[in-house]
Amino acid sequence: MNDTRIKADKYTRGIGLMLFCEVFWIMTSALTKHLTEFYPPFQLLFFRNILTVPILYFSLPVIYGSIPLRTNRSFLHVLHGFIGAVGMICLIVGINQTTLSETVTITYAAPLFITVLSIPFLGERVGFRRWSAVIVGFFGVLVVARPDIEIDPIIFILLFGTFCFSVTVIIRRFLSRTEKSAVITFYFVLIGSFIGGVGLYWQWLTPSIIDFGLLIGLGLLAAVTQISLTMAIKETPVSILSPLFYLSLSAAVVIDIVFWNIFPDINTIFGAGIIILAGLFIIYREGNLKIFYIIMKKKNFFDKDSVNVDKNKKI
Fold it and tell me: Torsion over CA of 137, 232, 21 and 180, rounded to 10 degrees?
C-alpha cells in the first residue's frame, strides 16, 4: 500500500467529522440570520462563543487526556481571537442584509485570500496557474457583487469578514507548530466571548424567554461546530478537508427557499460556480485533491466495487 493510500485511510475519520461540522455550521448560520433581525451583532457574537468555552474546556481531557492550556504565544492567541471576532461581526452584519446563499458564496473567497497571504507570511511559492485561479475566483466574486448595477456596500463588509477569517487561518498555521488545535480553538472562542461581552455594554437587548432559548441554542450549535471542526483538524489537515467546505452552498439555497422564500439569482449561481472551481483548482495544485478522491472512493461514495482495489495499482 503506497503513502497516498495510507494517508487516505488515516484521514477518513476527519472527513466524517468535517461533514458533521458542515451540517451544524449551516444550522448555526441560518439561526444567526434569523436572530440578526432582532438582536445586535455583539450580543450574537457573545452567545455564539460563550457556551463553547466551558464545553471545550471539559472536552480537552477527552481529546488529549489532559488540559494543556499553557502557552508561550499569548500575543498570537489574542491577535487570532481579535481578528476572528472582527471577521465574525462583519459576517453577522452582512448576513442580515443579504441572503444566506450569497453570504456563503462570498465566504468561498477565503481560499483565494489564503493563497495570496501565504506568500509573504508563510513563504509559499505560488505559480502562474494558481495565480490565474485566484484572479478567476475574484472575478466570480465580482459576478456575485453585480458590477453592472450599483454594488451593495454589504458585499465589501462580507469580503472584509472573509479576509479576516483568512488571516486567522494563517495565524492558526503559525500557532499549530507548537500548540494543539483544541487549545488554539479554546483561546479563539475565549477572546471572542470577551470582545462580545465588552460590546454588550452598548448592545444588550433583553430577550424574551423564547428568544433566550434560541440564543442558547445558537451557542450550543456553535459549540458543536467548533468542537467537531477542532477534532476534524486534529485528524486531517485543513487542506484535505477544504473540498467539503463547498457542500454548504446547496444547504444554504434550500434554507433560503424554505424559510425566507428567496430563490438564488443567476449571478449568485454563476459566481458561486466560478469561485468553487477556482478554489478546487487551488486545492488540486496543492496536491491534496487526489487524497480526498481516494478517501471518497474507498468509502463507496463513487462506486460499489471501489473497496476491492488492486494494491499494486499506481495512483
Answer: -90
Written as nine digits, the cell of 41 is 451583532
Per-residue model confidence as pLDDT tens digits over 4-50: 555 555 677 788 888 899 999 999 999 999 999 999 999 999 999 99
- What is the DSSP code string of 207-239? PPHHHHHHHHHHHHHHHHHHHHHHHHHHHS-HH
Dihedral sign (CA 67, 72, 73, 78): positive
Q: How many CB atoms lie within 10 A of CB 84?
A: 24
Give the separation between CA 12 and CA 207, rounded to whole angstroms: 42
Angle, in degrees to the nearest 10, between helices 153-175 and 74-97: 150
Q: Is 134 inside a domain boundary?
A: yes
CA atoms within 13 A on the CB side of 165: 20
How far apart CA 169 and CA 238 sit, in angstroms, is 9
Q: How many domains does the chain have?
A: 1
Q: Which domain holds residue 60?
A: 3-298
Q: Which of 145-154, 263-272, 288-297 has the lowest mean pLDDT?
A: 288-297
What is the 3 state secondary structure string of 4-26?
HHHHHHHHHHHHHHHHHHHHHHH
